[in-house]
Design goal:
This protein has 383 residues and is of the alpha/beta class. It has 14 helices and 12 strands. The protein has 2 domains: 132 residues, Aspartate Aminotransferase, domain 1 (Alpha-Beta Complex), CATH 3.90.1150.10; 237 residues, Aspartate Aminotransferase, domain 2. The longest helix is centred in the last third of the chain and has 21 residues. The chain binds pyridoxal-5'-phosphate (PLP). Pyridoxal-5'-phosphate binds next to helix 4.
């Protein structure tokens, strides 16, 4: 059976050039980087990590000592939020939105349990933050604004330059989760006034198990795990050298595919809009939408049923965010943009990559047309 992978917001196929770079670090160059002072083999690992760190730092206009490697985006978000929460006296208020990833929402909930105040800034029907409401919610106790650069479900790209300016004026920390945007669009941490920035390896054709966190020099932040002195004494534990090498290579070779991917994204949206009735596109159209994201609600049918039937045709997509796809709960993002239960549960997310072809999109649309027609015939939800 053929395979069409359209769940690239969840994870991506590792580029062969990345795998090739990683292989020597499994069987030949396997020493821990902290053994650099003991033997030369350790130096090789240390150099490899330093090189990946430099590549990543340069990509966001940071310096190498502002980048720490983590196990992934969840950990990076946790360090940024929890790590600053105890280190900034008198600051016990966080501003965020309901459309953040669970690794931000749940971490902030933990702070709330411990006495923090949280303001959730509303978003409009396309998922854009209300910047005036954000400005108004700032208090003298505000520690941080925590915002996702682009929403992983509906692809809305926030105006982080504008939010960064507000944070600069009010002298508050600005945490940005760039899991879905890193390498897909330029990010300049200096210009955007970002304090901490979450970066992902496995959503950019790198390996799983490697993420990073940019931490602006001078930020008061503590480690959240305790142990050794790795990663500038901010993230203890043996560095995952092969994954870090792969992450660096994925960043090095990145950056030329977004235009091509967005053409296919718009082709998919256009075909579904023209050929399948009773649908709703979730999120904005055009330049403010992630280049690889399509999210559509199909009226009168359950997303789960669409997903299973697409899977039988070898097409991998998701309903809502991957984290909610095993839950009957409505995703907070769908709720925040005003979708009702039917629209939320009838939504399908297609996320493309540089490997997606027009022919795969055509196969997906043809399959989808049949599936939606069949499901609507037997649907108890209406038509
Ligand atoms: C915006 C965003 N942040 C964080 C994460 C968490 O990623 P991971 O589960 O790889 O740590 C994801 C995963 O999809 C995401 O899309």
């Amino acid at each position: 059976m053929r395979l069409v992978y359209l769940d690239n917001a969840a994870s991506t196929r590792v580029d062969e050039r990345v795998t090739e770079e990683m292989i020597p670090y499994f069987n030949d160059k396997y020493a821990v980087a902290t053994s650099v002072f003991s033997y030369r083999m350790g130096l090789e690992s240390k150099k490899a990590i330093d090189s990946a760190r430099k590549i990543i730092a340069e990509k966001i206009n940071a310096s190498s000592d502002e980048i720490i490697f983590t196990s992934g985006e969840t950990e990076s978000n946790n360090i940024a939020i929890l790590g600053t929460s105890g280190k900034n006296k008198g600051k016990s208020h966080i501003i965020t939105t309901k459309t953040e990833h669970l690794s931000v929402l749940k971490t902030i909930e933990k702070l709330k349990e411990g006495g923090f105040l949280v303001s959730y800034v509303p978003v409009d029907k396309e998922g854009f933050i209300d910047c005036n409401a954000l400005k108004k919610s700032i208090k003298k106790e505000t520690l941080m604004v925590a915002i996702c650069h682009a929403n992983e479900e509906i692809g809305t790209i926030q105006n982080i330059e504008k939010i960064g300016k507000i944070c600069r004026e009010k002298k508050i920390l600005f945490h940005v989760d760039a899991t879905q945007t890193f390498t897909k669009m330029p990010i300049d941490v200096e210009k955007l006034n970002i304090t901490t920035l979450t970066l992902s390896g496995h959503t950019i054709h790198g390996p799983k198990g490697a993420g990073a966190l940019f931490i602006k020099k001078g930020t008061k932040i503590d480690k959240i795990m305790h142990g050794g002195f790795n990663e500038y004494d901010l993230r203890p534990g043996t560095e995952n050298v092969p994954a870090i090498v792969g992450f660096g290579e994925a960043v090095r070779i990145s950056g030329k595919d977004c235009k091509k991917v967005s053409v296919l994204r718009d082709y998919l949206i256009e075909r579904i809009t023209n050929e399948i009735p009773d649908i709703k596109i979730n999120g904005p159209l055009g330049k403010d939408r992630l280049c690889n994201n399509v999210n559509i609600s199909f009226h009168h049918v359950e997303g789960e049923s669409i997903l299973l039937r697409l899977d039988m045709k070898g097409i991998c997509v998701s309903t809502g965010s991957a984290c909610f796809s095993r839950s009957l709960e409505m995703s907070p993002t769908m709720k925040a943009i005003g979708n009702n239960h039917e629209l939320s549960h009838g939504s399908i997310r297609f996320t493309l990559s540089k490997y997606t072809t027009k022919e795969e999109i055509d196969y997906t649309v043809e399959s989808l047309k049949k599936i939606i027609k069949e499901l609507r015939k037997i649907s108890p939800l209406g038509k």
